[in-house]
Amino acid sequence: MPKGSYSFTTPIYYVNAAPHLGTAYTTIAADTVARYQRMNGYDVAFVTGLDEHGQKVADTAAGHGMTPQAWCDSMEPAFREAWDLLDITYTDFVRTTEARHARTVQRFWTDLYEKGFLYKGAYEGWYCVHEETYYAESDLEKDESGILVCPDCKRPVQEASGEENWFFKLSDFQEQLLAFYDENPGFIKPETRRNEVTSFVRGGLKDLSISRSTFDWGVPLPFDEGHVAYVWADALLAYITGIGYADEGRPGEFDARWPMQYHFVGKDIIRFHCVIWPAMLMAAGLPITHTVFGHGFLLTKGEKMSKSKGNALRPSDLIEVFGVDAYRYYFMSDVQFGSDGSISMERMVQVYNADLANTWGNLCSRVFNMTEKYFDGKVPAVAPPFADAPNPLKDIADALYGHYDAAMGAVDFSAAVAAVQRLAGRVNLYVEESAPWNLAKQAEAASDLAFVIYNSLEAIRIIALYLAPFMPKTSSEVFRRLGLGDPSAITDIGQAGAWGGLPAGNPVETGDALFPRLDGEAVELA
Ligand code: MSP
Fold first, then answer.
1. Which atom in ligand 1 lies closest to the alpha carbon of residue 304?
2. Residue 309 C-alpha to ligand 1 middle, in angstroms?
3. Residue with CA nearest ligand 1 atom 8
4. Ligand 1 pocket test: which of 8, 9, 12, 13 has the largest number of ligand atoms within 8 Å of its C-beta?
5. How far apart are alpha carbons 264 and 8 in whole angstroms?
6. In a domain, 360, yes or no
7. What residues are in contact with ligand 1 under a 6 Å CB criterion?
8. Residue 310 banded pLDDT, cuts 50, 70, 90
9. How many domains does the chain have?
10. Which residues of 7-30 are buried (b: 16+ CB within 10 A; e: fewer)?
11. What is the mean pLDDT of residues 41-54?
12. pTM
């Protein structure tokens, strides 16, 4: 019986550019959660997708001499292929140009219109197409030549004054939002982002323009046909489309899955998710997602990676060098989720060699080798007198689920990995201390030898189990070499992690090195 629903989202990505390491980062994080919570017995909904409307996409399409729809259709495969390559197990992939999503947008905004939360007026201010955001003149900056530019991306802005728009009465929600943040301290994480949002809301809120009438690449609003929904008034709703809102083919699903546990987003879009989105939900009378987690940026040489700066590597470039599991592992373990993190090929090679080649891969091949050599490739049985013998590996393994589960629940991926790596490090030391190669020379030490090898194999099983959400292919392979089925099929990871789960007599296969060492010099550096 599943424990219940565990649902969360990545942002839906603009299709003006191909997926890069930044967008892959959020997606891998969400997938790590998806895989873990499935192994923890939850019924997971993991929504991702594409943000296909808005002026930015329309302009990009025009720049390529294509219709917006043809452009979006041409970009979709790049995202699906990148996520397949990264072993992403999303449960729904929402494109905002789908008919089911238009139904969501139309139903949602018509409801708010009928409830009296919308009014029509003339917009006074500016618009940044790159950020797809409205700005008041007082928000803007000037570049060297005195041109008004966007405070976020520093690109020139367009004047939108006089545009007839529908407005959402966001300003009415200031007090309600502040009370909500107060009562739900876990809503915005990490803490620093929370302070940023509350002080922004305390400064006062302006009503939000939710429609555009000067161009038509969007979902038409049924109560005023000349208007299409503003891209953010459209995109945020993809989260509910992805769990069956306004979808008669999926009865009961929305009620079972809403509110969600998490929205994982980059820190640049935290205001949309922590101010506008909860206010929209309040107006609609819907409950609010438990937590918006704003992660940091990946930086290369101190700068945010982005397509426009030309420092955006493609995920496939790195997968070619490191393999998909090492890629996932590096970003989840070496960059603290929530903070900005510098990434580099040098560091990636270092982490790969230290954690994966020298520690984890090496441990597996050593212990599997000894099992082949001393026990004919079968998991040895532990003699009864040893059942209660002091066992440092069991002690660590017994405490592991508690630490790991707490870290994973708080999406502190690097802490979860560190807890598992402590066990791996201890097994390596244990093998050194117990020196099975000496025990093998003494006939009277046969039971000791079986004890040491069993413990090491069992610890390897447990390490592979807990690393499965991070490195699914490797963990499946380690399980296979231990004569076990796919760990991804497990639905009670805590129970599966209990000591003693590895059956004696199982065949053990050494196989090739899981992570052959990389020569840093030979890896082409970015
Ligand atoms: N379409 C909007 C989101 C709508 S959600 C209802 C959007 N799309 S985006 O494609 O521009 O960006 C998506 C996410 O990628 C953002 O969360 C952003 O923070 C993240 N990243 C883009 N570059 C990044 C890095 N260099 N590092 C980490 N994440 C970054 O915004």
1. 26
2. 15
3. 13
4. 13
5. 7
6. yes
7. 11-14, 22-23, 25-26, 51, 235-236, 238, 265-266, 268-269, 297-298, 304-306
8. low
9. 2
10. bbbbbbbbbbbbbbbbbbbbbbbb
11. 98
12. 0.96
Indicate whether 80 and 211 sit together in one domain.
Answer: yes
Distance (Å, rounded) from C-alpha 79 to C-alpha 495?
Answer: 36
Ligand 1 atom index nearest CA of 312: 26
Question: 277-284 vs 174-183: helix axis angle to the nearest 10?
Answer: 100
403 lies in the same domain as 449: yes
- For ligand 1, pick from 10, 14, 20, 23 the residue to mutate: most ligand atoms within 8 Å of CB: 23
The whole domain housing 394 covers 345-496
* DSSP category for residue 92: E
Residue to substitute in 133, 269, 297 for testing ligand 1 pocket (most ligand atoms within 8 angstroms of CB): 269
Distance 23 CA to ligand 1 centre (A): 6
Q: Does 238 share its domain with 372? A: no
Ligand 1 centre and the CA of 265: distance in Å? 7
Helices 362-375, 472-481: crossing angle, 10 deg rounding: 10
- Please check whether residues 111 and 260 belong to one and the same domain: yes
**Do residue 420 and residue 274 come from a single domain?**
no
CATH code of 483's domain: 1.10.730.10
Q: Where does the pLDDT of residue 247 fall: very low under 50, low under 70, confident under 90, or very high at 90 and above?
A: very high
Mean pLDDT of 194-203: 96
Dump the DSSP string for 440-503: TT-GGGHHHHHHHHHHHHHHHHHHHHHHTTT-HHHHHHHHHHTT---GGG-S-HHHHTSTT-SP
Q: Atom 16 of ligand 1 has which residue's CA nearest to it?
A: 266
Mean pLDDT to the nearest integer, 370-393: 92
> Measured between alpha carbons, how far is residue 61 from residues 52, 67, 212, 234 in Å?
11, 6, 19, 19
Residue 461 within a domain: yes
